[in-house]
């Protein structure tokens, strides 16, 4: 029932595979999709140092022009077979709102559709990539005192991303709001954090944004559920928030992640374009 995959990475991802744009497009056609959005990790803001060991969280700024030009060609080639949208997954990084706005003002006119996600949290003026590894998550847990405190901190960062003023080209789809649960089987929380989740959904609804309903968590051995899980997606639907399916595929074989576990694929929308 899924007709559009709104969250796909590309050969420009330094922590993905060399699968080509054509590989993804052909798989999408084979799967019966009518469209896909390529949402490569946008270059990180000027002045921000990637805290991951290989500093491979995102494409470099120097690759951006080639990325867009390549996708323009792909879009043209597949125009009669598949709707290909040019997008980015933009990181909200607390403290770098001005730099992110400047970047979006530059690149925004060239994009069809994008996602605003949180991967990095700030603890005591140091940044940590929350989903990088169980060890990094444990470091955050040690610094904040508990898994529940890490979740709370992450959800507060997501709220800030929704409320942030990033200019007229700010992405209006909020990415994987429960990414902090990636290692939940190893580091389980003791609370449901229902009020935090409800607050995020209310903010998304108030801003007329949409929600990334991300299947990648189903492939993660320490997670096993979508981001967000089905009960939260159902609540978002009840509030009238558009749910946009995204595989978050970093390789072709990751496409269609979690589709079989989506609570109701009939309600999933195509991307809401600016």
From TrEMBL:
EC number of this enzyme: 3.1.3.15
Source organism superkingdom: Bacteria
Pathway the protein acts in: Amino-acid biosynthesis; L-histidine biosynthesis; L-histidine from 5-phospho-alpha-D-ribose 1-diphosphate: step 8/9
GO biological process: L-histidine biosynthetic process
Keyword match Magnesium: no
Reactions mediated catalytically: L-histidinol phosphate + H2O = L-histidinol + phosphate
CDD domains, per database record: PHP_HisPPase_Hisj_like
PHP domain residues: 5-214
This protein's GO CC annotations: cytoplasm
Class of enzymatic activity (EC top level): hydrolase
Keyword terms of this UniProt record: Amino-acid biosynthesis, Histidine biosynthesis, Hydrolase
Sample GO molecular function, one term: histidinol-phosphatase activity
Family recorded in the similarity comment: Belongs to the PHP hydrolase family. HisK subfamily.
This protein's name: Histidinol-phosphatase
